[in-house]
Amino acid sequence: MLKLAGAMLVLVSGTLIGFRQAARYADRTAQIRDLLHALQRLETEIGFGHTPLPEALGRAATGAAEPVAAIFIRTAERLRADGASVRDALRATVAEVWPRTAMREPERAALTRLGDALGISDREDQIRHLRLAAALLAAEEAGARDEQIRYGKMWRSLGFMAALLVVILML
Amino acid sequence: MLDGLLALLPAELAALIRALPASVLNGLEEIRVRQDRPLEIGHAGGFAYVTPAGTVTTDPAGGWRPDAGLCARLLERITNHSLYAMEEELRRGYVTVAGGHRIGLAGRTVLEGGAVRGLRDIGAFNIRIARETRGASARLLPHIADRVRRSVLSTLIVAPPQQGKTTMLRDIIRSVSYGDWPMPEARSWPARKVGVVDERSEIAACVRGVPAFDVGPRTDVLDACPKAEGMMMLLRSMSPELLAVDEIGRPEDAEAIREAAHAGVPVIATAHANDLEDARGRTTIRRLIDEGAFAAVVELRRRGADIAFRVVRPGPAAREPTRKAGGAGAC
Q1: Residue B12's closest CA among B75, B67, B76?
Q2: Does domain B141-330 have CATH number 3.40.50.300?
Q3: Residue range A55-108, pLDDT digits in tens
Q4: CATH annotation of B2-128
Q5: Predicted ipTM of the assembly
Q6: What is the dihedral of CA B216, B221, B223, B225, to 10 degrees?
Q7: pTM score of the predicted model
Q8: Considering only CB atoms, which chain B residues are within 8 Å of A120?
Q9: Do A52 and B75 touch (CB under 8 A)?
Q10: Binary contact (B83, A46; C-beta < 8 A)
Q11: Average pLDDT for residues B114-138, to the nearest whole number?
Q12: Domain residue spans in chain A?
């Protein structure tokens, strides 16, 4: 009886781990897309609205879901509060928020590189940098979606299968 | 007033300025930051360098030298991290920050079709501290009062930079708008509606459309608006009884001032010039004076903490001053 309960427990947790891993793939795709949309809004604010950066960042965050919105909102807060440079503010925010996201190193690199240029050059240059970051992110998004399809399904079955294997070995 | 400005400066620069002796801080007029060169301050008409210990010296070798990083941070902060939104300001060469302080910039110019499009590699900043001196115009106002219309005459204020033109203009605006006439016979004169075209945001120092300086309850400010266009807009829309503008000189400014004169609205304007003769050297201003657009011309000079003035009534036809009034009087 106890053995059966243990086996059930292993099976359930294995399946959950698998689903969780699969969800990370889906989250990464969704978050990169969120980030892309936010950058597009930022481009509009900078290119057409001439909106000052702290405000533009705040507006770019509206419509984005949580971990991505936080990157923009926290950066804007930092700029307003202690007057740090955009570069430092964005780096500090990324370091703080990144563990909560499902995104990986290439996205982080694209974002911090954008932060090095944001706010310190004329409009055309800003738009160029924003578009470059968007292009990099779009490439990552395509890759992320591929992985989501391929490994997402795999993880979902793998979790259950591995748990099953453990149960068989235990029995 | 100074606290707001210091909050805008990078921490190490603000700390140095705060460490200056109170006597220097009270008379502080300019902070000049030049990359890799000693930090300079202008105070009480003179200048000095600031040492790393926060004292003043006249020896350039003893001055604290801001580096490229500090200049980059200063630029980022005074442009609110938004250099891209400052194209017009960079083309003109200065940025006005909250509090009305004007920060002049120098660096490498970017040309487009032979005209200056902006600045890059900015390595020199001149932070001019705006001060509100209430009562600065109290001694001048009786000399430029229009006793028939119970208002002020059209007046041109001329002085070299840093002699208190904007301070004087701001206080005239404030007095007229409050109806705060200093002359005993003017007790019953009403307060007047004043329209201000504040192209450089120096007169009223508007923050999101609301003046930071006290320019009076009956004053309407068109902030960051080109003067000529702004004067016409105010004439059409706000029915001013007095128009005030800073630093005229372009031909289109003259057109707008003539328009105001036809509408019977006096204009108080300032212009960069050493004195009246010097101002006449500028075509636009000479024409305006000769046409009689200004009933009075005021020359200003700083005398320590006070502003001395001389009022000249040019008259429409006369080339030479016809009457001298006021003499040098500190106010």
Answers
A1: B67
A2: yes
A3: 888 888 888 888 888 888 988 888 888 767 888 888 888 888 888 888 888 888
A4: 3.30.450
A5: 0.74
A6: -140
A7: 0.72
A8: 72, 75-76, 81, 83
A9: no
A10: no
A11: 84
A12: 2-170
